[in-house]
Design brief:
By secondary structure, the chain is mostly helical. It has a single domain, classed as Growth Hormone, Chain: A, CATH 1.20.1250. Helices cover 79% and strands 0% of the residues.
Length: 209
């Protein structure tokens, strides 16, 4: 107790300090959440706009109508599988499902990088639908698992800002690569960042983060 301070005043001061520390803890995003955001940001740096998939389909010889139909086919696959994958993530490891999604994404992007036949666009778009179904909703649930108390709004805001910035950077990089390096280059970049995110995800899972 400081000189001249009453026991009651000292007790009140200690209670105030404890409350301040508690409030500070509640407003601080958990380390596990920052790790999750960092992993998905790495992936996002190669996950360019789907417009490049459509451009690549045209580049491989599909006409406008067939490009639209191929993209519609992808949406059918995605919408059909989104619910089963979401339900699966409630019973099994979300990290494992996301890891599988990253593997599928890398395979699809490598496929778009190396194929030369127009027919290959159809199975690639179908498998791309599997990737989106396995990650679109699951990644949000995965992030939610790592939130602190009463921080859902802040956590989702930070996650959306980080991944949105990554997607913008990925699309800008893809445009430069498409123009100055080659039409396969954006997809090689996407496969590389997906693989890097996969390695980080596995390491984080093994470390129980």
């Amino acid at each position: 107790m400081r000189c001249g301070e009453s026991p009651a005043g000292s007790r009140i001061a200690r209670l105030g300090e404890a409350a301040a520390r508690k409030d500070d803890h509640r407003t601080r995003l958990p380390r596990a959440l920052w790790v999750a955001i960092g992993i998905w940001l790495v992936f996002s740096l190669g996950n360019s706009s789907d417009a490049f998939l459509l451009l690549r389909a045209r580049d491989l010889g599909l006409g406008t109508t067939l490009v639209v139909l191929a993209y519609a086919f992808y949406n059918v696959v995605y919408s059909t599988l989104a619910w089963p994958f979401g339900s699966l993530s409630d019973r099994f490891s979300r990290s494992a499902i996301l890891a599988g999604g990253l593997v599928v994404f890398a395979a699809v992007y490598l496929g778009f990088a190396v194929v030369s036949a127009s027919w290959a666009v159809w199975p690639l778009f179908a498998v791309y639908g599997v990737y989106v179904a396995a990650t679109e909703g699951v990644v949000r649930a995965w992030v939610s698992d790592r939130m602190g108390e009463s921080l859902a709004g802040t956590a989702y805001g930070v996650f959306s800002t980080a991944t949105g910035a990554g997607l913008l950077a990925a699309s800008l990089a893809a445009g430069l690569l498409w123009t100055h390096v080659g039409h396969a280059a954006p997809f090689v970049l996407g496969a590389v960042t997906a693989f890097a995110a996969l390695v980080l995800l596995v390491l984080a899972t093994l470390a129980h983060v």
